[in-house]
Amino acid sequence: MSLERFISEAISPWMKKDGPDSDIVLSSRIRLARNLKDFTFPILATMEEAKLIVNHISTNLLKNPYNSVGQLELLHMDDLKANVKKVLVEKHLISPHLSEESKHGAVLLSEDESVSIMINEEDHLRIQCLFSGFQLSEGLVLASGLDDWIEDKLTYAFDEKRGYLTSCPTNVGTGLRASVMMHLPALVMTQQLNKILPAINQLGLVVRGIYGEGSEALGNLFQISNQMTLGKSEQDIVEDLRGVVMQLIQQERSAREMLLQSSKIQLEDRVYRSFGVLSNSRIMESKEAAQRLSEVRLGIDLGLIEGISGNILNELMILTQPGFLQQFAGETLSPNQRDERRAALIRERLKLEDVRK
């Protein structure tokens, strides 16, 4: 399969769109945790109960599609090869927990993969909506609509005082996790981010790596999300996060402008060195690839590099992950083989950009 065709088939359609402030906010996500009344929660369910839950949910949700989303496709984790599940994790369509630890887990996916409904993850349902750029409000509208549509067909576990009941106490209440993926290279380069992070935490928000809790912040990419789910409405939670993100966008833009004014030649050198390494390397570890891609993307956004799409960071941060490298190769690869393939894929992707000009 050619790289161009592989990219076309591998990258989620929603990722190919340019959303608001997409030079800094790569994506927005709204996730709702829900459980069903009169069914054992997944963490305590037997295998038979877990199967019954998947059947009950999928039977009810596949009958009549949700208008704006269309027909959903059901994927059973037990039927998928390990690498296919890894690819779904790398695309943020399922969680590592659903891939590796859940009992008879499943996922319902929309055609453009902007909606993913995980079944038998930590909770019976994890309703997730993904948008490109800074679109938290749009994500909340879609997630709320889906939530109402599901509640018309299934009965949720709900308490008048505590709200939606969840396996983990930190999700009780609204069950809402709102998050954005931000590219903040200038704040990292100017060493301002370390001063900002404690203030963000004090506001009830948390900053994590690219794959959420426990993951590393690769390529200057940071996931910022709410911690509090109880005592606030969904709208208030989203608005609080939105306000902080808007400030971060402004601070990142100011830091980029400062770099251009005070250290332009040094910044150009750094950006073009990374571009040269990516264009010519024969071996590339994932951490280095993420950092070099981040610097090239910064160069593109600042107009220092022309003729290359800004989507290259979004694409290659996913395509150079282990699951995708092995999917493209059609075989299991050792770590050294993955480093070689990663370098070759990046070189080929950059050459493909030249052909498209």
From TrEMBL:
The keyword Kinase applies. A motif (RDXXRA motif of the pArg binding pocket involved in allosteric regulation) lies at residues 338-343. InterPro entries: Arg_Kinase (IPR023660), ATP-guanido_PTrfase (IPR000749), ATP-guanido_PTrfase_AS (IPR022415), ATP-guanido_PTrfase_cat (IPR022414), Gln_synth/guanido_kin_cat_dom (IPR014746). PROSITE patterns: PHOSPHAGEN_KINASE (PS00112), PHOSPHAGEN_KINASE_C (PS51510). Appears to be allosterically activated by the binding of pArg-containing polypeptides to the pArg-binding pocket localized in the C-terminal domain of McsB. NCBIfam families: PRK01059.1-4 (NF002194), PRK01059.1-5 (NF002195). Belongs to the ATP:guanido phosphotransferase family. This is Protein-arginine kinase. The gene is mcsB.
